[in-house]
Write a structure and sequence with these properties.
Oligomer: homodimer
Low-confidence stretches of chain A: 308-316
Largest sheet of chain A: 5 strands, parallel
Radius of gyration of chain A: 21 Å
Number of helices of chain A: 11
Chain lengths: 316, 316
């Protein structure tokens, strides 16, 4: 059996790209210190800052909450958590309950913002009515979720929002943007990206951690694993990309880190691209005249009103 | 059996991404007109210009020669062909003989420039002596081949050199750069890339054509196929990348074109990155003080001199 290269205990994990073998406590400690390094490397959070943690309730975001909570003491951060309730019956409820249990244990504030209160419809309702198949359920939901996070951050009065995106997520998203021909959006992936029209920064303290490492951290920390996955999840291309990247990493340990480095080098060249036109309806940033939130909201509302209206005449 | 969507003849090829079915003459004609469009879209070659065609003797470069020859009449281009003889016994000789046969048939000049005459050693000799395993044989050879093409272009007095890189090559190279963490080199992939220190432009008229289409064009044109492949070829990562990209294209027809579009969008942001420091030994452009050609040449010569020297003393 392998021995922890740090303390001589029984190793539970081997980092293939570095050769390091780690026991459970040293592994968990390494996750905290790696996250700390990522945060300082990209100047993600300042000393004494008010930080909003976006907590879906899944293993990654709960891990982020634990790690940031541990780091917050020495950095004098003021953490507050919030969850977005998209309104997916039998799925999000469980996750939010998990999030609430952990935040209570840590003694942190926890707010929930729902699509229903923000937009007038739940995701269940919107997808039920959605007829436009040009946008996948995940992209559709993502447009509303990003805005909901902004709203929750404003309410909580934080200057920075931390999300639990890990190295795998980052690299996949980078490649997905290329596969969609969406290079302008690469700007969003810049760790230093900021939009003057919305002063709350977004940071990804786990962006240098493998998905398998955040999962192991969650497991070793006894965090609850969600039993159901989102019923609308349709990954398509992303799961192909995940497979390719995992195969590359398996054959060339450390490849995900190389890809991250390249991605950062590329996105830094797009940092000046901004969504700078204010939406003519809501005033939030948009790439053209009307932002995606207003555009999709209107499409959903048209369907709802149509569905609620009088039944069509005719029909024998 | 499928029918040619252009002339009603018997189709030999179907373009999955467009749905077009084409007979042999219409397919060949489409390759010529697509190449013509690529050349004008990126302003690759000006009317009346002297064009050097880099001909390895493989199917792609021989196809390029045929297509450019056909287009040269209406554009008043002056074509001249050249081959680089790396000095690989039993491999390059056959290819150069093929190149010579085709250029003779077309009535074009054809020059050959060898590593031996330019650098003092053949690739066979250099790789025999090479001990530095940090550079793959293909990267090693590539450094010398690029310089040899520059030399051949200067000799031939052309202002632009056309190489036969196709869409697959382009996209693979783009991704390979990312997987090597080599983002600065992306500048070289810009179709408008130019280096003031070397006034001969490089263009890739086939960069919007699938590899399978250039191969079919070669086959339908009766071009000779090389029977042996380079004995030093070791593709490693590139063949993995080729497989992934081919799988993506199979599942999502047109994906290679999307990737090309994204790649072009990305490389355009790197276009200002130049290899701008003159090499302290040969004066050619380099990224730092000494160019790769001089650096690797010296390493090879040290090995050669060491091997030619007196035998080591001792050894019982």
């Amino acid at each position: 059996l392998e021995v922890c290269t740090r303390c001589g205990g029984r190793a539970v994990y081997t980092r293939r790209y570095s050769g390091e073998a780690l026991c459970a406590p040293c592994f968990k400690e390494s996750i905290v210190s790696k996250t700390n390094k990522t945060i300082s490397r990209y100047n993600m959070i300042a000393r004494g800052e008010r930080v909003g943690v976006a907590v879906s309730g899944g293993k990654d975001s709960l891990s982020l909450l634990l790690v940031l909570d541990e780091l917050s003491r020495s950095h004098d951060w003021h953490l507050t958590a919030f969850s977005i309730d998209e309104g997916v019956e039998g799925y999000r409820d469980e996750a939010i309950a998990n999030a609430r249990a952990i935040t209570e244990r840590l003694g942190l504030e926890h707010a929930t913002v729902s699509y229903k209160e923000l937009y007038g419809f739940s995701l269940d309702q919107a997808l039920d009515w959605k007829e436009d198949r040009s946008v996948s359920s995940c992209s559709f939901c993502g447009v509303f979720r990003r805005r909901a996070i902004d709203e929750a951050a404003s309410k909580a009065g934080v200057s920075v929002v931390a999300t639990a995106h890990n190295l795998d997520d980052y690299v996949q998203t980078f490649l997905m943007n290329l596969l969609h021909g969406d290079v302008e959006r690469l700007a969003w992936l810049d760790p230093a990206y900021s939009d003057e029209s919305f002063p709350v920064r977004r940071v990804k303290p786990f962006m240098e951690l493998y998905e398998e490492e955040t999962a192991l951290y969650a497991y070793l920390s006894g965090l609850p694993f969600q039993s159901v996955s989102c019923p609308y999840m349709h990954e398509g291309l992303r799961s192909e990309v995940r497979d390719y990247v995992n195969q590359l990493e398996a054959g060339h340990p450390g490849m995900k880190h190389v890809l991250l480095k390249s991605s950062l080098g590329v996105v830094s060249r797009f940092a000046s691209t901004k969504l700078s036109v204010p939406c003519t309806r809501c005033g939030k940033p948009s790439s053209s005249g009307v932002c995606n939130v207003c555009r999709l909201k209107e499409a959903v509302n048209q369907q709802i009103n149509y569905g609620d209206g009088p039944p069509r005449a005719g029909g024998g």
